[in-house]
Design goal:
The protein is mostly helical. 69% of the residues lie in helices and 5% in strands. The chain is built from 15 helices and eight strands. The strands form three sheets. Strands 1, 2, 7 and 8 form a four-stranded antiparallel beta sheet that branches. Helix 5 crosses helix 6. The N terminus is likely disordered.
Length: 464
Amino acid sequence: MALGEGGDRGAAAPLISDRPKHGGIVRSGSMWTAVAHVITAVIGSGALSLAWSIAQLGWVAGPAMMLVFAAVTALQSTLFADCYRSPDPEHGPHRNRTYANAVDRNLGSTSAWLCLLLQQTAMFGYGVAYTITASISFRAILKANCYHEHGHDAPCSYGGSYYMFLFGGAQLFLSFIPDFHDMAWLSIVAAVMSFSYAFIGLGLGLANTIANGTIKGSITGVPMRSPTQKIWRVSQAIGDIAFAYPYSLILLEIQDTLKSPPAENKTMKKASIISILVTTFFYLCCGCFGYAAFGSDAPGNLLTGFGFYEPYWLIDFANACIILHLLGGYQVYSQPIFQFADRFFAEKFPDSGFVNDFHTVKFVCLPPCRVNLLRLCFRTLYVASTTAVAVVFPYFNEMLALLGALNFWPLAIYFPVEMYFIQRKVPRWSTRWLVLQTFSVVCLLVSAFALVGSIEGLISQKLG
């Protein structure tokens, strides 16, 4: 390969896109590309843990909790979509292109920095969770083949670290996609993969239930040795469900890709409702059929816990779909961090060649590409760090519960509700203000309960 002489200073990594059009950003997204981005972000690791979650809660509370979180996510996304534009007396409506931009404009810089810290931490955590899940799916393929060849009692055991490094290597390559505009194709592929393995999980659960001739499970869920243990399990299950739904972390970034007219908030609301209806249907089917098939023995990960052994080729295909989906899902949650870093350093060091210069690199038999040294170093370190944390804490259900509980209330509820009050000038102590504040407090209590249980589960796994 050869490095072009001299770097071309320019478009030093704007937050969303560096392709100008009449001095602005090219926005060509539609409702369907937004649906693809949302489904890629939402239907992921969380879908595979829902049979286990319903098993902890039972036949009544399990599905009911999933419907509650679906309704909460629909309300939250509707409130949040209206925060994309803020009134500006001098220049007209201002675009809030990121979550932190919206919080800064509506609630002030202190809230914005807190929001940014929580958001970046949560998105980093999603990268860790997706790395863990991909490793589990890699090993599930090997186990399915081993069990098919040597029998279900064979000692088929495979380490996970190697496959985490393999997934990290693939993410290192994909992390050089410039922005959301350039990864619509990846989200579409990932969304198709998510439907594929969701259908397979649904079909296998239904087939297993029919083969059993009975619907397993109970009203109260998995019995535990003590009430305290039951409480911890219930709280972890709620955390897992919380992880499976909200996508507020990236809603405005997705909305900023939409073309107008029609108004971006109208398109985003339609995309959100479609996505939530689709994901809720799949979640209920996967979770309920998985619980009906396995009852109290429902695995923590439906397609890798090895309740299902045959047909082994279908298990292999489903797990391959999971891996391909996670490749896209990881990028959906990582791109906002990459774009923030690009803009932050470009503004902090406007004269730095390391930060702002792009170099042309030529490979044999491949078209030339432009490389920025900051992006190369930062994105490499980011992928390496998510992989390292996944290697140290490879606990699937507990990690999902922790992430779900940690970001559910502040990012999915508190900030959107407070910004809605500002945007719509809702008077204090009015009926609408009281209803939404009550809603926020209830969600805070649920989030705190799930957080305590998920931390207890993570500590128990590490010490055990």
